[in-house]
Every structure is written in C-alpha cells, then in structure tokens.
From TrEMBL, chains A, B:
<dbReference type="InterPro" id="IPR032095">
    <property type="entry name" value="Sacchrp_dh-like_C"/>
</dbReference>
<dbReference type="Pfam" id="PF16653">
    <property type="entry name" value="Sacchrp_dh_C"/>
</dbReference>
<dbReference type="Pfam" id="PF03435">
    <property type="entry name" value="Sacchrp_dh_NADP"/>
</dbReference>
<dbReference type="InterPro" id="IPR036291">
    <property type="entry name" value="NAD(P)-bd_dom_sf"/>
</dbReference>
<protein>
    <submittedName>
        <fullName>Saccharopine dehydrogenase family protein</fullName>
    </submittedName>
</protein>
<feature type="domain" description="Saccharopine dehydrogenase NADP binding">
    <location>
        <begin position="3"/>
        <end position="146"/>
    </location>
</feature>
<feature type="domain" description="Saccharopine dehydrogenase-like C-terminal">
    <location>
        <begin position="151"/>
        <end position="404"/>
    </location>
</feature>
<dbReference type="InterPro" id="IPR005097">
    <property type="entry name" value="Sacchrp_dh_NADP-bd"/>
</dbReference>
C-alpha cells in the first residue's frame, strides 16, 4: 500500500504520526498546499521515531482544488490510496483526482449539502455525500473503492452501528450518534476562556445548516437548527451535556446499509455554545457575505464570520492550554438478540493531555485521525475489501474494533472502546 | 434666550422640532458638523410650521471637538445658552466652549468615566461627570449655569427624585431609576428582527462598563456588569422586564442633592439583549481594538465592535418599522410623609407611533429631547435659575412636572406623567 495523504493540517498531521507507529504500508506521501507544513510533519516523525521510520514518508506540494494536480501527484508517487484530510470543500476534486489516477480513496467528511430552496427546515435539498454517491457506478466499473466518512464521526460511529446491528440487536429502533466533551481552555493567567477546539467557521456552517434526520417511514427530512434538545450523559467523568440535532454524515450513511427505524446525530454543543451560535445568527454575524465597515484606512469589506474567527484564539494554538476529554459514540435502542428491549451506548474517549504528550496533537483532531489509519490497515491486510462508494458500515465491524482495542504490544492500537447498557438509566 | 443647539442627530433634531411649538426663546441656531443635517431640521420645521416659525431658527456648521470653534459659533450668534446634543465624547469641548463664550450650558449625558485600573468591578476610577464637577468653581465664579444630565435619564428621572424627596417621602430608602420598553422592529415581510433603537456601539460601552451604585455608608462603588438582576413591572402594557445595573449619571447626580440610603440605575435590557451583550463580550466582539481579518482585497484591520454595528440595521432607519412604547421612571421606597412605609414608581411613557406621526422622531430619541426643552423654558421664564455645575435635582421639580403635564392648549407640553403606589405589589 502506497498512500497519498492530502492535507497536513491538524488531522492530516495526526494521521501521519499515528501511522508512523505501524508498518502495514510501503510509503506515505504527506502533501499540502504549503509544502513546509508537510515537511514539518515528516520532521516530527524523524525526530520522534528516527530516520528509518521517516524514510517511509515523503513530502509533496499539492493543490487540492485541482483534480488534475491531485491525479498527477498520485501517479507520480504510484499511490494505491488517496487519503483526503482537508476541508470538505475539496471533496469533489480529490475524489475525482483519485479515480483518475486509479487509486482507492478515503475521506472523513463528505461532499457538502445545499439547503432546499424553498422549504429548508423541513425538506432536504442536496444532501451530504449526494455528489459522491451519484458517481458510485464509475467507481464500481473501475473496480476501485471510495471509503467515505471514515473519521471518528462519521467513521467510528458507523462502525459501532454495524457492530450493533450484527451483534447486539435483533431489531433497531434508533441509531443516534452522540458526541460530547468536557474540554476547557485557559489563558496564561489560568482563567477559563471561550476558545473552540476546532474552526468556528466550520462549526457555524455545520450547526446553522438545517439538521437532517432519517426515519423508515418518512425517509430523509430536515428540521430547524438546534432541534430536539436532550441532555445526554457522557461516560468517564464527562457527564451530562445538552445535545441538539446537527447536520452530519452518519444520518445519510447508516440507513443505506443498516435497518433501523430512525437515525439521528446530536452534537453536545452545550448551552453556552448553542447560545453563542444563536446569537451570532441573530445579529447576522454568522454571515459569510461581506459587509462594509469603517476602518482607520477608510471603509473596507469583510465577512462578519471571518471577523468572529479572527477575534477568537487560533484553534491550532490552544492544545497545550486545553484539558479534558472528548467522547464520540453511538447510542442505539431496540430489541436485543434475545428479543428483549435493549439500549446501549458504544463509545471511545480521547484525553487531551495524553494525545498532546504522545502525539503533540489535540484530542479532537487525534481521535478523528485514528480511525482512517485503522481502516487503511484493514484494507492493506485484505481484511476489508470492496469497490464502489461505501460507508464504514458496509464492512465488518468486528475486526476493526478488535484491532483498535488490542494493546499496542500485541499488535493493536491500544484504544479501548466502551459499551454501556443504558436501559432504565 | 438665544440657544446654540450643538448636534442635529436624532435627539438634536427632535429638540428643535419640540421647541418649534413653543415661544419662550428668541432664536435657536441648529448646528452640526454636517451643516446639511442642521438645514434638514430647519426645513422640516418650515414645512410643518411655516416660514414664521422657521424664521426663529438658523443652521450652522460646527466642530464639537474644538472648544474654540464652539465658543466662536456661540459668540457669532450671541448665544445665551449652549445645548449639547452630541455624543458624550464631546462633552469636555462643548462644556469649555460654552463657558469661554459666556453662555449657560445644558447637556443630557455627562463626561465619560474611566474604570479603576486594578479593581474595576468594585471601586470607581474616574466617574461620569467628574471632569465637569471639577470645574464647578469656574462656572460659579463666572456666574454661569451648567445644567448637566438634563435629558430623560438622566434628567426627568432626577426631577422625579427631587419631587419624591420634597413631596412624597420623609425618609428615602432607595432611589432606583428603572427604564424599560416593549419596542419591536419588523422587516419588510413583517417578521420581528433584532434591531436596537439606538447605537449598539454606545450600548456596548454603557452596558459593559462597570455599573456604579451609591450607598450612604459605602459611597460610590462599582459591580461587575449586569449585576443584581430583577424583574421590574413596567406600566401601560409594557409589562415585566429583566433589569440589571448599568453605569448611569443618576447615580452620581442624585446623592449630591438628595438624601437617600441607596441610589441605583437599572436598565430593562431584557434577557435577549443581555445574552447578546454577554456573548459579544465572551467572543471579544465588543472590542474597539482592531483585529486583522482576511478580505477579498487581502488582510485588513477592523474593530469587531464596528463590524457588529455594520451587521445590524441602521437605528436611524428603523423608526417607521418600529412599534411599542418606552418607559422612563423612578422607583422610590422609604417612609412617606406620614411616616409609614411607601413605595412609588414615577414615570413617563412615550409611544413610537405617536412620536413618529407628530414629530417624525423615534420615541426613545423624542422622549430624551422633550426634557431639555422644558428645562430651557423654565430657565427662560426665570422659574429655574442658578449658577455652577448643577443637576436637575438641584431645582424645584413641581413647576417642571406641571408644565410637562399641562395640556398643550393650556400652555403646557401635554405630556402626562404617572405615579403608581407600589407597596405590597
């Protein structure tokens, strides 16, 4: 397996660092629009793991917005797999470039949605991933695999759904991805500050888009933002957090392969973050359209959303000042294999102090990066295989979860996952 | 009386329009940095009241930031009174210009405060009006009067305090100014929108400054923003609104002339507005310091607070789309003249539809403008007189409130004010 990793931002960087501890591939070329960023990742691997390990890594410049250039770099390095680790805005071009180069493809977020033009809070327009599934025939005919949505959410959550369907339930009522964290960022003086661990620009996009829900009878439909709030109890000391519906890939992926009555995604934004997003929307500060503003050099045109991002601390710099854990998981309900009511929460928790120490990577970013590396290893070993455009739930979940949980000294990733019985809680 | 009105913005314009129905003065010169704005006010008066009335008005250009220019314009028009109707930022220069020209002076907001450098949420630094009171000796020696804080709040609220002390109480526990409104602004489609009726820039300044409180034993002290929330019931259908401590002139004025145990100012911001202001502060979007932001023409420097103002509808344009009432008043408690516990709310309500129809002025702005005109009339008739730097509570409240409430056809302003007994409510 020869991997072209596109993007050496937070997640791309962590993918390379996690893969550096494994040996299932022949080469990984880390590529970025800014080649120096890709080189930094390889230099970190060299410093931490030595020249031998680093010799399996290369660095390259790439323009992810250009499918020809993606195909060119993939061919040049004889890539068998293109791993997309950049903003979802560039899914279509990397997706096309990989197919053109005859490589398999993986991503962690799918092609973007467009709201319904007249009824956005009830009906879907263009859904997440629609553009990619429309091209499934091309991938099948080429005998190539596009494994889409293979991060942590979507990704691990979808693996959990497959596992629940195959091993825990005879009849599934709801598959509900639930994500929450107790991360805290402090300033130099030790005071808690408001500093999201990920791009506020993307969070605004994700959270203010109409959330999507799937039901067996109704199919896919949308709701107003922040709908169906519920307080979900997260494990390992994270505790109760207010979760709301958010547009996410799981809802478009799971129903394609798994039989359930209802599929949802709720994000544990917490009351403060929900208030922040609602207020930004109320004031028009979520807008990506420029407004005219006075400045010392005369009037200028800036997008309010860019100003919000500029006024907050840079998420790339807050890892060392952050403490706490993030939890990704799937809450499932229905009838167990014995035919009796069952409710479980399958989850994985990532601790920022541990990921910073082990990988110089923030826990949210690191947790996202872990899962595509496991998937690549299963594909390299031939344990997973397929062609066409497939989600993680199209594959057997058992070997994924085993490899993930197995201790490192026994050949696994040493990342325990949990199963909590929730009925009656 | 010859009045130089400085500022033909919302309040200045309304002062001229209200005065146009009265005859206590010889001339009013409306001045503005933008002379066309002053001319528009005079043209409105001419169109509404005819050339005769308009002949008592003139228009002039003025630079309020230059005391020499203020004095020059005042002398040129032989002004006996300078009426300051611009942003409080320009109080020091107009104040100085009036004295230099040998004119009396009135304003509706006082010289700005500066927070305590190390303990801003407990101790006062430079208080509102400190700069003006420091010059009281100059005004006394010159035999000239500076009547400061003579709008609605401060202004009418201080008149109510004097009235309460002279006619309603034998011992005052608390003088608490309480301000609230039920104003609603709609977009073209009739949907309610978030559109403050006054500059968000100024509101941020006012509400995020440490609020000031006075107590007989402690003197003046400050608190964190939004302290001591209470739900206050406003009259005439406005109803209950959450009010919080806000920095305001009444608290520095009333204790200088009236004996009370405690003096407060609470503003009925309402929960939504408080949330907005807190969120802006949390995200650093209240900041007036420029941040670097990407734009289509490369990085630019803008102050987040300017972007917030630019993203909201222009307050100058919303009058015709606004409905509702605003209420200014004083809640006072203590022992009545009979020595028994008493609690009253003295208030004045202004209805936007009425002020728009009668004056083409938004109700918040119009209500502010009404009171200095009444005060000027009392000074012109010799009913009020004095020298030095004095607040409205230094004068007899009875003739003010009588002239205000008397019907227009009987020579008054036709503006009823209310007194509600509140004990036990």
């Amino acid at each position: 397996m020869r991997i072209l990793l596109v993007g050496a931002g937070g997640v791309g960087d962590a993918i390379a660092k996690i893969a550096a501890r494994r040996d299932f591939y022949e080469q990984i070329v880390v590529s970025d629009y800014d080649k120096a960023r890709a080189e930094r990742t390889v230099a970190w691997i060299s410093a931490r793991h030595g020249a031998d390990v680093a010799s399996r890594f290369g660095a390259a410049q790439i323009d992810a917005s250009d499918p020809d250039r993606v195909a060119e770099v993939a061919r040049e390095h004889r890539a068998t797999h293109v791993m997309n680790a950049v903003e979802p805005l560039f899914v279509p071009t990397i997706f096309a470039g990989a197919l053109a180069a005859g490589a398999d493809y993986l991503d962690m977020a799918m092609s973007l949605s467009e709201p319904h033009p007249t009824d956005p809070h009830a009906r879907t327009g263009v859904k997440l991933g629609d553009d990619q599934f429309a091209q499934a025939g091309d991938w099948e005919r080429a005998g190539r695999l596009a494994l889409v949505g293979m991060g942590v959410e979507p990704g691990l959550s979808d693996v959990f759904a497959r596992y629940a369907a195959d091993h825990l339930f005879s009849d599934i009522e709801e598959l509900g991805t639930r994500d929450g964290a107790n991360l805290v960022v402090r300033d130099e003086a030790g005071n808690e500050i408001f500093a999201p661990g990920f791009s506020i620009w993307t969070t605004i996009e994700e959270c203010l888009n109409p959330p999507i829900v799937w039901e067996r009878d109704a199919g896919w439909f949308t709701t107003p933002p922040f709908s169906e709030p519920e307080v979900f109890e997260f494990p390992e000391g994270i505790g109760p957090i207010e979760c709301v519906n958010v547009e996410h890939e799981e809802v478009v992926l799971m129903p394609r392969w798994i039989d359930a009555k209802r599929v949802t995604f709720k994000y544990g934004l917490g009351e403060e973050f929900i208030t922040v997003l609602k207020t930004l929307h109320l004031l028009g500060l979520d807008s990506a359209m420029p407004v005219r503003v006075r400045s010392e050099n005369g009037p200028v045109e800036v997008a309010p959303r860019d100003v919000v991002a500029a006024a907050l601390p840079d998420p790339a710099t807050i890892g060392p000042r952050m403490t706490g854990k993030t939890c990704a998981g799937l809450w499932a309900s229905g009838l167990g294999v014995d035919g009796r009511p069952r409710e479980v929460y399958l989850y994985h928790v990532s601790d920022n102090e541990w990921t910073m120490r082990e990988y110089d990577a923030q826990c949210v970013v690191w947790q996202t990066a872990l899962n595509p590396v496991i998937a690549l290893e299963l594909l390299a070993r031939g344990i997973w295989s397929g062609s066409g455009v497939l989600g993680p739930e199209a594959f057997d979940a058992q070997p994924f979860l085993e490899l993930m949980a197995l201790p490192e000294d026994s050949g696994g990733y040493g990342q325990a996952w949990g199963l909590e019985e929730r009925l009656g809680r």
